[in-house]
Amino acid sequence: MASLLEISDVSVRFGGLVAVDGVSLAVGAGEICALIGPNGAGKTTLFNAVSGNAAISSGRILLKGEPIHGLAPHQISAKGVRRTFQNGGLFAGLTALENVLVGLHAKVGSGFLGLLAGARASERAESSSTEQARALLDLMEVGHIADELASDLSGGQQRIVEIVRAIATEPPLLLLDEPAVGLAPHMREQLVRIIRRLAAEQGVGILLIEHAIELVMAVADRVVVLNYGRKVADAPPEQVRADKAVLEAYLGHA
Ligand SMILES: Nc1ncnc2c1ncn2[C@@H]1O[C@H](COP(=O)(O)OP(=O)(O)O)[C@@H](O)[C@H]1O
Ligand SMILES: [Mg+2]
Fold this sequence. Notes:
- This protein is α/β, with parallel strands linked by helices and 254 residues long.
- It has helices at 43-51, 73-78, 96-108, 110-139, 155-167, 185-202, 213-219, 237-241, 244-251, and strands spanning 5-14, 17-27, 32-36, 58-63, 66-67, 81-83, 173-177, 205-209, 222-227, 230-235.
- The strands form 2 sheets. Strands 6-7-8-3-9-10 form a 6-stranded mixed sheet, sandwiched between helices. Strands 2-1-4-5 form a 4-stranded antiparallel sheet, covered by helices on one side.
- Strand 4 and strand 5 form a beta hairpin.
- The chain starts with a strand and ends with a helix.
- The structure holds adenosine-5'-diphosphate and magnesium ion.
- Adenosine-5'-diphosphate is lined by residues 14, 17, 19, 37, 39-45.
- Residues 43-44, 86 line the site of magnesium ion (MG).
């Protein structure tokens, strides 16, 4: 069977700069694949290529065997590829719950339901999606902050709510761009638990960009290392940790 996500010989160029250079990698359902490498290695650009935010110059990107490169971001999102961004992006003036509802409504479309079945059905859809959003926040250990404004949450709480919003529609594939930046140690542990559960219990395939190497070692089934846009390693964490080329690329020494 085809992998959930298959990136095949993908390059992304910005003028003369080859930001991603012939990268191939696959992520299976329920698999956690970490993408590491020094700043400027092309990690975010590769995410942008998968989510439709950057055009690829060559190669193919397949979701469940179907090409998704060339589609617009909202089309790729509708196919079940959700992502978080490096610099976050909750609606500050909305509560945590309302932010998750925004993620849910991308799919529920209560306005459309309302047209079809009258206002009552729309109200029912509304209250059931509110229940669903609360249940998700509970599941992800942030139920207690459901009614707080996003702007009043700690950075760590915001990141977790952002992840809850991204997974609200149960996407098969989740892309997380540096989710642990600025998180206190206990929030990091919570994040690790959440990522593991999403993969193990819900079968979500996860591609994770992360600088915190302990976190990568703790959650990843596989680690892919990029350097100057090229893939220099793709192996289980313990093997990558022992790889000389990786140490050179990632830590700047052998
Ligand atoms: N929109 C863009 N236009 C031009 N160059 C870009 C753009 N986005 C990224 N780059 C360049 O591509 C390279 C890879 O960047 P990026 O993917 O952000 O790396 P990483 O996420 O691994 O730190 C860098 O040299 C960066 O300056
Ligand atoms: Mg980046």
